[in-house]
Design goal:
seven-stranded mixed sheet; 30% helix; 24% strand; 8 helices; 259 residues
């Protein structure tokens, strides 16, 4: 009897998908008319909302605030061209994870869309010797902070994570580890769609997403992280690893049941 109750709890339908889009300066180059990012992200929101179907809420997130998108999802694609980005401001992944994790529950899934640039804030970079904060601390302070928040706020609450890697044309300034702008004109850069929720919800959403051509035809890599699989500090997915160490798995092996 107790087992049946647990199964019903774990298999609750998704009540809402909350999509958080990183508004850091390094994301601005994706928000152009000819960038694949815009069509994939808008299709992602639309397909979940209309064809799965699940209610979708969209937010823009940075270090200081979370701003809810107020228009209809049908206008989302065109509105992405109008987003304003603060020049030179990076979004700290640990802070974003902490803020977003408070929205997850047994019927809500969160999605984080970002290029996942690992960086401290402007004060940390400007205040370091030779602006070396990111170079010296990315694999120490920053990575440990992400690991602790990820484990405390997500893994310990029995939520799982799947990361999907895509690429898109990028036209604008990319910021290096010293927060110096580097101009890129139409060069492909990776970005990541991260889904966090219960094992059941991630499996359900992923199976549906793989049925959409816009998704499976553009997907480059995917990785899954769960308490069941075991997570340690040296392999805490691609978020904190400059060396891109994450446990990438072939997409062909992940179609269907993911766990």
């Amino acid at each position: 009897m107790q087992k049946q109750k647990k199964e019903n709890c774990c298999s609750k339908k998704v009540g809402c998908v909350k999509i958080f889009i990183d508004k850091s300066a390094s994301m601005a180059g994706y928000f152009k008319a000819d960038a694949e990012f815009r069509s994939i992200v808008s299709d992602f929101a639309s397909k979940i909302n209309k064809e799965i179907p699940v209610p979708v809420e969209i937010f823009f997130i940075d270090n200081d605030s979370i701003t809810k998108y107020q228009n209809r999802i049908s206008k989302f694609s065109s509105d992405l061209l109008l987003i304003n980005f603060a020049d030179g401001i990076s979004t700290q992944i640990d802070k974003s994870l902490y803020k977003m994790s408070s929205f997850i529950n047994d019927t809500t899934v969160i999605v984080y869309i970002s290029d996942l640039i690992l960086s401290g804030n402007r004060a940390q970079i400007d205040g370091s010797i030779n602006r070396q904060f990111n170079v010296l601390e990315a694999d120490n302070t920053l990575r440990k902070s992400i690991y602790e928040i990820f484990y405390d706020s997500i893994v310990n609450k029995n939520f799982d994570t799947q990361i999907f890697q895509f690429t898109s044309k990028f036209t604008g300034n990319y910021f290096d580890f010293k927060n110096r702008p580097i101009r890129l004109d139409g060069k492909n850069r990776p970005y990541y769609i991260t889904i966090i929720g219960s094992e059941y919800h991630i499996t359900t959403l992923s199976d549906k997403l793989y049925s959409f051509s816009f998704f499976k035809d553009n997907l480059k890599n995917t990785a899954i992280f769960s308490k069941k699989m075991g997570i340690n500090e040296t392999e805490t997915f691609i978020y904190p690893n400059i060396q891109k160490k994450g446990k990438w798995l072939p997409t062909s092996a992940l179609k269907g049941t993911l766990f």
